[in-house]
Amino acid sequence: MKTLFAATLASVVATGAAQAEIRIGHVYGQTGPLEAYAAQSHTGLMLGLEYATEGTMEIDGEPITVLEYDTQLDPARGRSLLAEAYGDDDVQIAVGPVSSGVALAMLPVAEEYERILIVEPAVADSITGENWNRYIFRTGRNSSQDAIANAVALGGEGVAVATLAQDYAFGRDGVAAFREALEETGATIAHEEYVPTETTDFTAAAERIFNAMGDVEAERKLLFIIWAGGGNPMGQINAMDPSRFDIEIATGGNILPALVAYRELPGLEGATYYYHEIPDNAVNDWLVETHQERYDSPPDFFTAGGMAAGIAVVEAIRAAGGADDTEALIEAMEGMSWETPKGTMTFRPEDHQALQSMYHFRTEVREGVDYGVPVLVRELGIEDMDIPIRNQ
């Protein structure tokens, strides 16, 4: 399914000739188990374009048109739709997708058509690692950024960790990066557990983890959960009382509905990509105020990421002097820094990964709030995280 959003009502100049336009394609999984992430990402993208153009939805007098394509979380469909966007619809820059598996299928299409794909919010390291090509830029964080931030927050001598993750690129890349990052802190991985993405009953997985960790000698035992989409592994496993094995549950941040499960675990620690109360900057102030006014709710995890991508699109096109010259866009974007709801992001020239802050949090229960609130322990700046370059 493809939908068209004309970001401005102007479609012709006064002479009647067709007006030049900038065509942005948002290729993402509007339907399926990650549709909540997708909706946030699209809202954020549109807000980012609006913010960066000061509400005009134009760049240097050229109106922005956004075309939407629904991958339905199908890699083959995502690949086909991106080819359609570049080849049939003359999209100059594409943004998306939600799923890492879909993103990996889409990367060669950007290279084939020699056009920019800004990956947001798919996370797998391999997107800007072994499967990367020079037309790929990523505003979203990667698995290593998640992993290293959580390792800095949770790791240390005497800490033993078991992991539970989904059995696909997001989960396996995340655990691999987390394992590598923990080694630098003196912590150890004692057990890795992978389950299918559609898993809803975590009893067997939890028992395997408990059995593996029961006899481990450590000052602190953690079960670190890497999960996206449906299911509630944290709540189910917490109900099985892991404390009888001296195991604490830990995890990274997530969208607001998922934070409901965090309320059962006050004091839970980890590192998060975004929570609307944490960043202190003008872009985030605008996002929080605008989102609250329009949607009667605060912006969420992937709204901030979509906004970062939208602002990056505008800044890149301005710096390149237009959207038609891919080589000029690449030159402008390599090393480009821009302001986002999370503060300054920078595209690293070597792999086009956006370097950015993360946030060490501790969950707090507040009266009148139906989820566990991630309270800032400390900001983990770009300089605090040595993010590997994995495409070489």
TrEMBL record:
<keyword id="KW-0732">Signal</keyword>
<dbReference type="InterPro" id="IPR051010">
    <property type="entry name" value="BCAA_transport"/>
</dbReference>
<comment type="similarity">
    <text>Belongs to the leucine-binding protein family.</text>
</comment>
<dbReference type="GO" id="GO:0006865">
    <property type="term" value="P:amino acid transport"/>
</dbReference>
<keyword id="KW-0813">Transport</keyword>
<dbReference type="InterPro" id="IPR028082">
    <property type="entry name" value="Peripla_BP_I"/>
</dbReference>
<dbReference type="InterPro" id="IPR028081">
    <property type="entry name" value="Leu-bd"/>
</dbReference>
<keyword id="KW-0029">Amino-acid transport</keyword>
<protein>
    <submittedName>
        <fullName>Amino acid/amide ABC transporter substrate-binding protein, HAAT family</fullName>
    </submittedName>
</protein>
<dbReference type="Pfam" id="PF13458">
    <property type="entry name" value="Peripla_BP_6"/>
</dbReference>
<feature type="domain" description="Leucine-binding protein">
    <location>
        <begin position="21"/>
        <end position="363"/>
    </location>
</feature>
